[in-house]
TrEMBL record:
<feature type="active site" description="Proton acceptor">
    <location>
        <position position="351"/>
    </location>
</feature>
<keyword id="KW-0326">Glycosidase</keyword>
<keyword id="KW-0136">Cellulose degradation</keyword>
<feature type="active site">
    <location>
        <position position="124"/>
    </location>
</feature>
<feature type="active site" description="Proton donor">
    <location>
        <position position="169"/>
    </location>
</feature>
<feature type="signal peptide">
    <location>
        <begin position="1"/>
        <end position="18"/>
    </location>
</feature>
<feature type="binding site">
    <location>
        <position position="92"/>
    </location>
    <ligand>
        <name>substrate</name>
    </ligand>
</feature>
<keyword id="KW-0378">Hydrolase</keyword>
<dbReference type="InterPro" id="IPR036434">
    <property type="entry name" value="Beta_cellobiohydrolase_sf"/>
</dbReference>
<keyword id="KW-0732">Signal</keyword>
<feature type="binding site">
    <location>
        <position position="217"/>
    </location>
    <ligand>
        <name>substrate</name>
    </ligand>
</feature>
<dbReference type="GO" id="GO:0004553">
    <property type="term" value="F:hydrolase activity, hydrolyzing O-glycosyl compounds"/>
</dbReference>
<feature type="binding site">
    <location>
        <position position="214"/>
    </location>
    <ligand>
        <name>substrate</name>
    </ligand>
</feature>
<dbReference type="GO" id="GO:0030245">
    <property type="term" value="P:cellulose catabolic process"/>
</dbReference>
<keyword id="KW-0624">Polysaccharide degradation</keyword>
<feature type="binding site">
    <location>
        <position position="345"/>
    </location>
    <ligand>
        <name>substrate</name>
    </ligand>
</feature>
<dbReference type="Pfam" id="PF01341">
    <property type="entry name" value="Glyco_hydro_6"/>
</dbReference>
Length: 396
């Protein structure tokens, strides 16, 4: 990450030379911009308002290797720039906990580090692609071998600001897929696990966002209230932790932020869903969250939503073909309900394997609009990454 700091310092120095008066303060300011905070961070209000999402070294190094492997030099140059974009680091197994510290060793005070908490027992109960390492019933393991060690590590970084996305897809699945046996079996572990995570991770330098699916999921008229209730119950079971800001939406998703009319607004069932884009979804869901008793701010994943019109059906979620990197992370959203546009899903990491003989093969990853071949969820897909770069809006 040294390269990034150099770039920041250079920008600050340029500013200094252009404006003579603060010359003495210049170098100090430049150094401070790249340094960690000197005192403990206590977050209040929108944590992204004055902070940039940190470009974690884990994803940066995936991107750098990918760019180095490209033969098209123009594309490689564009691809390399992705390494400087802030994104969330997924802690998707207990063993991944070991990379957290090295990824936090250089977070500047001007930045906020993003982590995804993602290891519930019976994970991904309505699909197969992201089935996790813990089985239904492993809640004590989730608590003592996953959440507790993460809390111990994060307590070593009181001077760093964090944003956490809590357990993608879990509670939304309990709202809409509870008819599936696997989700029934997972339900109590999800509810207790999420509440435990929220309670233990409630630290002053952390802002938490509970995953709320997307407009095509909990945005259906009939799902808004039950969805808000499910999330608010977890929040209240955790003792209404101060540092929960609200929800994360469109995580690893494809919905546009404010495309109007929305991508699926002409579908035969569109009349039953007013949340045709993520902006509308938040406008509808936030008041429901508040009346259910929890905060209603949102962050929205814009990592892969640049190109619309690709999905045959709204619910298609796996490696959608033709996608492009979307709006870069920013706390300037122009929407008082939206704390930030963020990159949660690390673009280039697969959503699921297209190998029909694999144990975690999910038929969604074999659909016509899914990119093939694709490796196991979380594994790098070079060809897919290249397309994300080519189709990026804004372009790199
Ligand atoms: C996978 C995880 C991975 C994450 C980010 C999920 O679909 O199941 O293993 O860390 O995506 O790529």
């Amino acid at each position: 990450m040294k390269g990034l700091y150099t770039a920041l310092a250079a920008t600050a120095f340029t500013g200094v030379f252009a404006a003579p008066s603060p010359i003495e303060k210049g170098p100090v300011t430049a150094r401070a911009a790249a340094a960690a905070c000197a005192t403990p961070v206590t977050l209040s209000g929108n944590p992204f308002a004055s902070r940039t999402l940190y470009a974690n070294p884990f994803y940066a190094s995936e991107v750098k290797s990918a760019a180095a492997a490209m033969t098209d030099t123009a594309l490689a140059a564009s691809a390399a720039k992705v390494a400087d974009v802030g994104s969330f680091l997924w802690i998707d197994t207990r063993s991944k906990i070991s990379v957290i510290e090295e990824n936090l060793s250089n977070v500047p005070c001007t930045h906020i580090a993003g982590l995804v908490i993602y290891d519930l027992p019976g994970r991904d109960c309505a699909a197969k692609a992201s089935n996790g390492e813990l089985a239904v019933g492993d809640l004590p393991v989730y608590k003592s071998e996953y959440i507790d060690p993460i809390v111990t590590i994060l307590k070593k970084f009181p001077n760093t600001a964090f944003a956490l996305v809590i357990e993608p897809d879990s509670l939304p699945n309990l709202v809409t897929n509870i008819d599936k046996q696997a989700c029934k079996d997972s339900a109590s572990g999800y509810r207790d696990g999420v509440a435990y995570a929220l309670k233990q991770l409630n630290l002053p330098n952390i802002a938490m966002y509970i995953d709320a699916g997307h407009g095509g999921w909990l945005g259906w008229n009939d799902n808004l209230k039950p969805g808000a209730k499910e999330l608010a119950n977890a929040y209240k079971a955790a003792g209404s932790p101060k540092t929960v800001r609200g929800v994360a939406t469109n995580v690893a998703g494809w919905n546009a932020y404010d495309l109007s009319p929305g991508e699926f607004s002409k579908a035969t069932d569109a009349q039953w869903n007013k949340a045709q884009n993520e902006k509308e979804y938040i406008a509808l869901f936030s008041p429901e969250l508040k009346s259910a008793g929890m905060p209603g701010q949102a962050i929205i994943d814009t990592g892969r939503n640049a190109v619309t019109g690709l999905r045959k059906e709204w619910g298609n979620w796996c490696n959608v073909r033709g996608a492009g990197f979307g709006v870069r992370p920013t706390g300037s959203t122009g929407n008082s309900l939206v704390d930030a546009f963020v990159w949660v899903k690390p673009g280039g990491e697969s959503d699921g394997t297209s190998d029909t003989s694999a144990k975690r093969y999910d038929s969604f990853c074999g659909k016509e609009d899914a990119f093939k071949p694709s490796p196991e969820a979380g594994q790098w897909n070079q060809a897919y990454f290249e397309d994300l770069v080519k189709n990026a809006k804004p372009a790199f």
